[in-house]
Amino acid sequence: MRLLVYNIAYGTGSPRNTLQLLAGAARYVRTPERYFRAITHLVRHFRPDVAGFLETDNGSFRTGGTSQVAVLSDLLQSSGNGGFYTKYAPQSYLAKLPYCRHQTNALLVRNAVAGREWRDFMPCGAKRLILGREYNGVEILLVHLALTAAVRRKQLDYLAQLVQPGKKMIICGDFNTFGGYRELLHFLRKTKLKSANKIHQATYPARNPTKELDYILYSPQLELKNFQIKRFPGSDHLPLLADFAINDAT
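Predicted structure:
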């Protein structure tokens, strides 16, 4: 199973520095097509079996009404979830704002070959959406955690309750661990999950990465065959690619 995890930043590209970020602020109002087009080319090249996309636009004015989730779903020939609901708490004011209500995540499976799919919401934080999908007996969860450390700890405590001992599981996404990998140590000890990024390679910002914010965490019942972080400036985050061996013996 090949898994791609990528925060695509709504297709707004990757600024080289703060000055370029400020100069390109208009991209967050109306995004040039070239950035998202480059991302779709990358997805075609990687050919993932499962793909988790963070910060996707489901058809706001920013993308001219084009749903990035629908484009990516068609690309993978997937009926996967995401894009039908905001990544924010359903009753929050953010879920009602013009741009924010179109901001979501997507967990997609190539050719729609998958088991059950589901969604849940963490009990705290602005970004609460959890997307779940089963693929060949592996339960995969996609999350985007809070910007504040205290809220992230509560969200991780909630996620730990969803990890079933002895079950093949992957929890992946943008964890926003600005305090570093040590933020996850208690969570990893409790759940027995392991990070695919064994050398803690930084994933953000894409042009000159200094922080490890994005993760693929997997249960010991799975065998990691390969892991890569690709240097690609399609977003302010770098894409993560992991290959797992899946068989009945693990």
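Summary: Residues 40 and 72 are 7 Å apart (CA to CA).
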